[in-house]
Design brief:
This protein has 152 residues and is of the alpha/beta class. The chain has one domain (2-150): Ribose 5-phosphate Isomerase B, Chain: A (3-Layer(aba) Sandwich), CATH 3.40.1400. The protein contains six helices and five strands, in the order E-H-E-H-E-H-E-H-E-H-H. It has helices spanning 12-24, 44-56, 70-76, 90-100, 114-126, 133-150; strands spanning 2-7, 28-31, 61-66, 84-86, 104-108. Strand 1, helix 1 and strand 2 (28-31) form a beta-alpha-beta unit. Helix 2 (44-56) packs across helix 3 and helix 4 (90-100) packs parallel to helix 5. It is globular and about 45 Å long.
Length: 152
């Protein structure tokens, strides 16, 4: 799978171990930053380009890590077509993809360690959307909200 990845200083500690694990698992990874540990960097500078790449289909799924995961999550969701969620357990990692077609996973680098982060990531990447009518109907409603808000 072609995956986009971004982190700021708050998630930087997980960057290299996760990138190594992803690549060792056969995934292609496009990194959107951070490229060095800078306590003054700002998560939107890395998350927005990642989210745009997800929305455009340039990467199949995205992973964003900031300190808590909260900032990455609400920032990514500003981009139409992105369905990002802050996840810190495995159930929501697959359910979010299966039911809600989640395409960008957010994690808190100061909240989860590598082992749990990697378990969540593997679950997220293995999950596939269920194309049931009720899920499609709900996604259409979300897309309509995005469209209406975009033109205001």
């Amino acid at each position: 799978m072609n995956i986009g990845f971004a982190t700021d200083h708050g998630g930087y500690i997980l960057k290299e171990p996760i990138l190594e694990a992803l690549r060792n698992s056969g995934h292609e990874v496009r990194v959107f930053g951070a490229y060095n540990l800078n306590p003054e960097d700002d998560y939107p500078d890395f998350v927005i380009p990642l989210a745009r790449a997800v929305a455009r289909g340039e990467v199949e799924r995205g992973i964003a890590i900031c300190g808590s995961g909260v900032g990455a999550s609400f920032t990514a969701n500003k981009i139409a077509g992105v369905r990002a969620a802050l996840i810190h357990e495995s159930y929501s990692a697959h359910q979010g993809v299966e039911d809600d077609d989640m395409n960008l996973l957010c994690l808190g680098g100061r909240v989860v360690g590598f082992a749990l982060a990697w378990e969540i990531i593997q679950t997220f990447l293995a999950a596939q959307p269920v194309r049931a009518e009720r899920f499609e109907r709900r996604l259409a409603k979300v897309a309509a909200i995005e469209w209406k808000e975009k033109i205001k």
